[in-house]
Every structure is written in C-alpha cells, then in structure tokens.
Automatic annotation (TrEMBL):
Signal peptide: none annotated. Residues 1-12, 20-30 have a biased composition (Pro residues). Transmembrane segments: none annotated. It holds the Pfam family Beta-prop_AT5G49610-like. The gene is LOC123447057. This is F-box protein AT5G49610-like beta-propeller domain-containing protein. InterPro entries: AT5G49610-like_b-prop, F-box-like_dom_sf. It comes from Hordeum vulgare subsp. vulgare (Domesticated barley). Residues 211-397 form the F-box protein AT5G49610-like beta-propeller domain. It comes from the Eukaryota. Residues 1-31 are annotated as: Disordered.
Amino acid sequence: MRPQIPPPPTPKSLPMATRSPPPQRRPTSPPALIDDLMREIFLRVRGDDPASLVRSAACCWSWHRMLSHPDFAVDYRKFHGAAPMLGFLYNETHLTNHSTSYGQLRWYSSHFVSTATFRPPACRDRRKWRVLDSRHGLVLFDTPTRGEDFVVYDLVTGEHWEIRADPSCHYFMWWPDHDDDLHDCLRCNATVLCAKDRCDHLDCRGGPFRVAFVGCDYRRDAAHAAVYSSEACEWTAVTSVEHEHYIHYRGHRAVVGDKIYVPCMESDSLIVYNMGEQELSVINPPFVVHQITLMGVEDGMLLFASVVKPTLLLWSMEAGPGGAARWARHRVIELESLLPTSVPALLDNSSMRLVGFAEGLGVIFLSTKAGLYTIELSSRQSKRVHESQCMEKVMPYTSFYTGEWGPLLSSHEASPAVGGGTVI
C-alpha cells in the first residue's frame, strides 16, 4: 500500500514571506508614426479635399512641417496630375432703377460656387465685376468700375494683376450700346492662359501669363485679335482677317498650344488665332449638327457637344493645316439614365443647355429646369451643384490648394468655411 502524499498547499496557505508580488505592467506608448508612411498617406488625399490637409497640418508640428514643405506641394501635384476643380464661376445680371428709351439699364456681378471642402479667401462674389475666363489657376475679370479695364486673379493666393486695354483695341472690344449700364458693351471673346515655356500647368502659379482678345468691328466684315503679355506689360499689334460673321463673345473658347479657337454666332465656323505667329484664320467643322457647342479641349483635340432627345452627343475634332479639320471620335451618352427620373423637368430637351466644361477632368455642366448638373464623362455620374435655372455660362476653377498655413490652426479655424494662411 502506497503512502498517501498530501496535496500541495494552496497559495493562501503559503507564508506571506514566500508570496511573489504580481508583475507590474509598464505603460506602453503607441508606436511612433513613420514620417515617410504618413507622407505617402497625405499624398493620396483627394485634390478636391484640401480641408483634410489643413486639419492634418493643425494636428502636430511634425505633420505641419511635412505638409508645408515646398517639396510636398511639388510631389502632391505630380501624384495627382490634373488640377482638381475647387469650384466654378458665373455671372448674374441685375436691372437698375434707371431706364432709357432702349429699356432698363443692366449691370453684372460675378459669383463663385465652391465644389471642394475648402474655400480659399479670394474665392468670393464680386459686385459689378464680370468673369470672362478661367484657366491654369487664373481668372480674368472685366472691371469697368475700377481704374483699370481688366484684372487677372489667382483665387488661391489672392495675387492679382491690373490691365489697361490698348486704345488701338477699343474698336473691336467695346461696341456702343445705350441699353446697358456697365458691362454689356464688351463684345469680344477673352482668354487668359499661362505663358510659361513648356509648362505642364501643374505648378505654374505666379508665372507669366497672356490675355488674348478676339472680336469683330460691328461696322466691318472682319475679325480682329490682340494679346497682352504680363512679361512685357504691353500689347501686340492688332491682327485682322476678313470674316462675315460676328464673334460669339459669350461662347466657350479652346486653347491648343499657341492657338485659340473661338466660335461664331451665326455659323458653325471657328476663328483660329495663332498667338505665336499673330495670324487669324477660319475653319469649318466637318459636320453640321443642330445647336452644336464648342466645349473646350479633350486629349489635345477640340470637343463639341449637343443635346438631343435628351441625349448628349460628343465629337472630338482635330484641326489640320490650311484650315482643314477631320472628325476624330464620336460618343453618345443617354441622359435619362444619369439624371433623376423623379424630376420630369430634367428630361425637357428644350430647357437643357451645355454651359461649361472642366478641361482635364472631363466634367460637363448641364443647365436644366431643375438646376445645374455636372456630368462626369468617364464615370457617367451626375450631380446637382446649384439650384439656378438661368446660367448662361459656367467657368470651372481648377487649381491645387497646398502650402504652408503659418501657425497651427485650432480645430474651428481648420474648418472648410474658414480660409487661412499663405498658400504656395
């Protein structure tokens, strides 16, 4: 018979001197964030969501230094390619209390509508200014109530330049019109564009620019053009070509290299102004479609559009030498599948107007009885961006919003409604 072995004593029966104290856990700190990893994350923030970068810069000094470094701004633009759309501009017509034998006098104001998560301080409405064009991060305004005739604005940095028209250009820029108070006598098509040599327009902020004006003399059958250079601070000589149709001064223009394409009001022909050679010529599209509209440039070719039935018809046209032009591509987009079917007014073809195009992003602005819609050509998605039904022309504003924001912002200062800091 085996002897019975007593069970081991429980911990409670051990003498106090033999007890081991429970191990003490040391407080652990979260792993340090790797700067290179965070930089890669910040590079992938959407271009139309700059508020996220502003808030991140306000979190800590490390992120602030990273996001405000000039190299980050350069790499951010290269990573995203085409500049994002921060918003769009349009003009509104106002009637005064004064009237003449021709009717009530009118004046204009320009408005900015933000489509991004952050609104730069200079992106605001301007009374008695009329926006004429927007391209390469610049906006051209007609400012007859100021000492100068025009102002070019960088809406991100707030930097602006004043321009006085050359007296030799007045006869094709302004027509005598007693029916309007301030702006409507301007009868030329104006274009602002970057003039930096071989620029990819990803980082052309603060560089030289040109402003081209193409118009016609209401007394003569000819088109005229001239260019203002910010580098020389002077105008070129006026270039002319015989042409029997009026220039569409409110129409969309297109820029391909040194050439500007401007539509006419009474025909489908285009006036081509070669700024480098200072030559004017006329080309005719190889097709005739009811109410076809020159929208801009896509993949280096002219983009035309028309709304029928309601279907969006798109053409791309490549202009060749000697005024020749050839059809390049044709697309059809059914609007009924893109617009909300709960609003029957959207399908009213007579009320639909093509009023704008964001080059590089493939976004068309469509005005309807239910408001203003954007249509992304690549994704075939639509979005209502404004309630107005009477916009004649929309000019998208595309630019990167990255830079240094000075002292760290508090949480409420970093909200999208508040702008702050100096942007590079």
